Amino acid sequence: MSTAGCSDTLFVVRNFKSFELAGALRFRLDDDDLPIVLLLVAMAALACLTPAQNDTWWHLRSGREILESRSFLTSERFSHSSFGTELQIHWWLSQIIFYVAFMLGGPVLLTLLCGAFAFGAVYGAWRLAPGIFETRIILLLFLMIATAPGWAVRPQVFSMALFTLMLHLIVRDRMAWLPVVCLVWANVHAVVVLGLIVVGVVVFEALVWSRARLARDGTVLALCLLAPMVSPLGWHYWPRIISAVAISRELDLQEYRVPFELVDLPFWMMVVAICIATFLRRHSLNALSRSDRILLLSSGVLGLACLGAARNIAFFALVAAPAVAALLPESNRTSRRRAAAWPAYAMVVAAIASAALAVSWRWRDGGQQLGWRPLSYGVLEAVRECRDEYDAPVVRLRGLLGMRISRAVATRDPCRSFADTDLWWCGHTRRRTSRPSAPARRARGSCPASPRCPCSRPEARASRRVGTREPCRRAR
């Protein structure tokens, strides 16, 4: 009786030790893993510092309006110049998520949420890239740099994560889930069109190489095209998307610029790398696996899409990194992985501590350095009361606590013109990054603010640094 009890005890202890040893081996750090772990720690710190933008406040206010009214925002409610006009809303779900996260945890929780989606998109794309240690660490650096402009508290981070999820489903040949992803994506952000491009590439690959899967992939593509219509826009979804893109290009928005700036250098470096790798593998492209062919074709199509809009570079990077890794020849080098010594663990702990200190320092003022800086209530009252000598209608307050404020100025003859931008915060000052309408740019003049204007009050001048540091200017 006692012998059986002792044997049972020894069995439990032996299994516990083996389980503990397996866990220790599972989390063992190798020499090759150290640089990658340090990069991931740095990327996690950057995710905690995801900046807010002017759009952030509009999305927050829109999310609050949707929840309070229990209806979609089908008309403009915040604009003085276009109040009551039809509003094309493609991101109602992300606006609700933004507002709920903000109410539960403030700017910190919302920043962590958006940073987590951006981090997951980059890490997920990097996990699709095979190759040796040197190749993978270079690709991780490329992904961090190329996608950095898209890291912001905007619905675009949801699109990046869903795009990476779609790539994983395609690589694993789980095509049945793609319409579900498109359904969610269409109600989160309008960039679902990039996901449909990748699904179209899948159908093209089946038409040329994998004929047996053509019927299935074609059906999935049709369902993906219909899924976005399950949204507030209904059957008008795709015409509205085309119209929104046309209007954005007509307004010459920064996101639709041609990628010929210094910040776009990683994009061109990756394009050159893919072209060279494809040329070197030109005789063995048919030997690539189906998933590798889809990744390569998708990177080519999205590369062309980047030529018309720089905003697509982040999505190109997510698919180009695993595509170029698949083109590189496999290394025959065999090296035994060595366990890292204790200094490596000390470096990881020091990196985590340094990242935590850096994040805490940046958040020391409540996130004002990251864009979470609303205008003071004194400025808001001054803006509400502001009237200049032309009795111009000033302004729309757009966003939570008035951070996003626009102006609409319609002066009398002989200088009648119109300006309405999302970054104008008062009738007499403007941000450096604002872009007024074309008539306002052609007819811009400077004039001193009226002494009667509340903008000249001390509290308004003290907070003017939020809006501008330029002299007082007005569109005439």
Give descriptors for this structure.
single chain, 476 residues, 2 domains, two-stranded antiparallel sheet, 4% strand, disordered N terminus
Question: Based on CA inertia axes, which overall geometry fits?
Answer: globular
Distance between the termini: 100 Å
Mean pLDDT: 77
Backbone structural class: mainly alpha
- State the domain count: 2
Largest sheet: 3 strands, antiparallel
Give the ordered list of helices and strands: HHHHHHHHHHHHHHHEEEHEHE
Radius of gyration equals 27 Å
Which blocks of ≥5 consecutive residues have pLDDT under 50? 1-25, 387-476
Please, could you describe this protein's structure?
- The chain is mainly α and 476 residues long.
- The protein has two domains: 28-52 and 80-90 and 116-327, no CATH class; 377-475, no CATH class.
- The chain has helices spanning 2-26, 33-48, 54-69, 92-127, 133-147, 156-171, 178-188, 192-208, 214-226, 237-250, 265-280, 290-308, 313-327, 342-362, 377-385, 438-442, 458-462, and strands spanning 396-397, 405-410, 418-421, 444-446, 473-475.
- Strands 1-2-3 form a three-stranded antiparallel beta sheet. It has a two-stranded antiparallel ribbon with strand order 4-5.
- A hairpin with a 7-residue loop joins strand 1 (396-397) and strand 2.
Topology, pairings included?
Blueprint: H1 2-26, H2 33-48, H3 54-69, H4 92-127, H5 133-147, H6 156-171, H7 178-188, H8 192-208, H9 214-226, H10 237-250, H11 265-280, H12 290-308, H13 313-327, H14 342-362, H15 377-385, E1 396-397, E2 405-410, E3 418-421, H16 438-442, E4 444-446, H17 458-462, E5 473-475
Antiparallel strand pairs: 1-2, 2-3, 4-5
